[in-house]
Amino acid sequence: MECGVRSVGMAGVPRALYLQPTLDAAKSLIGKVLLRQTDEGPISGLIVETEAYLTGDPANHASRGMTNRNRTMFGPPGHAYVYKVHMQCCINAVAQPEGVAEAVLIRALMPLQGVELMRRNRGVDDLRALCSGPGKLTRALGIDRSLDGCDLVEGPVLIVEPDEELGDLGLVQTTRIGIRVAADEPWRFYSKAHERWVSRKATRP
DNA sequence: ATGACGATGCACT
DNA sequence: GTGCATCGTCATG
User: Fold this and answer.
1) CA–CA separation, A48 and A30 (whole Å)
2) What's the whole-model pTM score?
3) Gap from A90 CA to B6 C1', in Å?
4) Which nucleotide comes closest to A84 if you measure CA to C1'?
5) Which of A29, A39, A69, A88 is least enclosed by beta carbons within 10 angstroms?
6) Residue A124 in 3-state DSSP?
7) Higher confidence at residue A10 or residue A117?
8) Following CA atoms A79, A12, A27, A49 in sequence, which dihedral angle do they give, to the nearest 10 degrees?
């Protein structure tokens, strides 16, 4: 039986997850499932890598106030902030009560459902390359800016519990990737048990 | 109207 | 490790 999703129409993880301190929310999202419902069926993957973006953090898109691009970050928790960078889109879960504007970037997935759709969407065959980066995984799941603001508790993009117990993940905490400011803050998290699926391993333990 | 700049990915050394 | 394609967004004039 295929792992990852029970049925279409299920609810996402409770909104309370996104009201924890954002670093805790980023840890809690490791081992959950990101699910996109499409006409051709579900596409999903286990969240294995995240990053937190906090208040007063110069790398946070919201750190210089609300703009047209980042307005979703200032909205209610548990919604998807989808933004474009270069040619890619990236997806975040908005954390904290409305107006606070913190978020968790989803950086890598272990593919679960809809792998052939992912291969078609990405135009690559290698399973390990399908979702091992924030721009790769959105492309694999068919997520673009039209889904900005979507409720991750209700869909059509959701974060749900995995349907099997995962055991010990061995959470790794390390520095964030691809930023020029606040680059030393250890606000990236990944599952050591799923290290082969992450975008990049920690350089120093 | 225009210029600077990416929370990237990929090709290449 | 380095270089760069490529374009939406934002700040500025």
Assistant:
1) 5
2) 0.95
3) 12
4) C8
5) A39
6) coil
7) A117
8) -80
Residue A160 CA to its chain's centroid (Å): 12
pLDDT for position A186 = 97
Residue A189: per-residue pLDDT: 98
- Measured CA A148 to C1' B13 distance, in angstroms: 39
Our measurement of CA A199 to C1' C4, in angstroms, reads 20
Q: Which of A129, A95, A147 is nearest to A197 (CA)?
A: A129
Interface residues for strand B (CB within 7 Å) are A 51, 53, 59-62, 73, 81, 84-88, 90, 92, 103, 105, 122, 124, 129, 133-137, 176-180, 199
CA atoms within 13 A on the CB side of A123: 1
Confidence of residue A203 (pLDDT cuts 50, 70, 90): confident
**Integer Cα distance of A189 and A169 in angstroms:** 11
* Average pLDDT estimate for A93-112: 98
Give me the count of residues in chain A: 205
* Cβ neighbours around A115 below 10 Å, total: 17
